[in-house]
Amino acid sequence: MLLMTGDQVREAFPVAEAHRVVAEVMRRFSAGDVVQPVRTVLGSGRDASLFAAMPCHVAGESDAGYGLKAVLHAPGNSARGLPTHVGMVVVFDPETAQPLAMINGAAVTALRTAAASAVATEALAAPGAGDLALIGAGTQARSHLLALRDIRPPRRVRLWNRGRPRAEEFVAWARAKAGLDVEVADTPADALRGADLVCTTVDTVEPVVTAADLADGVHINAVGSSVPGKRELDAAAVASCSVFVDSREGALRESSEIASPVEEGLVPEDRPLPELGEVLLGKHPGRTSPAERTLYKSLGMAAQDVASGFAVVRAARRLGIGTEVDFAC
């Protein structure tokens, strides 16, 4: 079995490859080539931590087979300068069923989540979009800036974060690692004003984005609040958008952002929720007008993790990285 650290994952799985793998697995999911139950989420009730287990099987000629992700969401890690999502991705040999690899889950999560947002941006954003607003300054904000830079080089980047020091750290990192200048905004509304691309990456119960903050024609990738009870956008903001999801079943069962406009009577219960994979397959047109607001609500899927895991292993073998251990029965 191959063991892979976060740095080794990032070496083996560059942004462009993550984009390709995630786009392909989203197509397979919406085509019915993925078996994936809604994830099991467990909370102790003693703190805000959550543990999730996500098994699946991905069919296909490559990056396919059985696997799972186990992840522990630890909100307190943000103050420690550590990833808030800690876990592992495990994939199994399609022929022998032996464990093939155990892979750093935080690195895979950051890369595949940002890749999915980049795929959504490519499919749904207006052709000339390039005024980017980032809400949050953590790991996901960084991975999103790198992923979007490669497909939609931004004309302007604004950032809002609850803590100013971390926002300033992000500015220095973006200049050094991404070659981009980032402006720090005092409020979410200041960051969002006139933006035509938005990535929200904060774990929050109280929404920080309102409908009045959003420009006509904007595309939003909402990735930070991925469990019931958490929302980055308020109900009116979501209701003002054409909403696209990774998994319709998962979104209906787990997303408070999807549920709240229905509960507040702003949209009908049977509102269409096309999957991003359906857009990629040509089953849904995606954006239909320049002024339309589009929202990609990302909850993340085991299929993204597992396909990414197989791709990471394939690249690691080629590069000769990772640590082999004997895990045979």
From TrEMBL:
A Pfam cross-reference name: OCD_Mu_crystall
One GO term of the biological process aspect: carboxylic acid metabolic process
Superkingdom of this protein's organism: Bacteria
InterPro entries membership: NAD(P)-bd_dom_sf, ODC_Mu_crystall, ODC_N
Gene Ontology molecular function, alphabetical: oxidoreductase activity
Gene Ontology CC: cytoplasm
Family recorded in the similarity comment: Belongs to the ornithine cyclodeaminase/mu-crystallin family.
Name of protein: Ornithine cyclodeaminase family protein
Protein species of origin: Streptomyces coryli
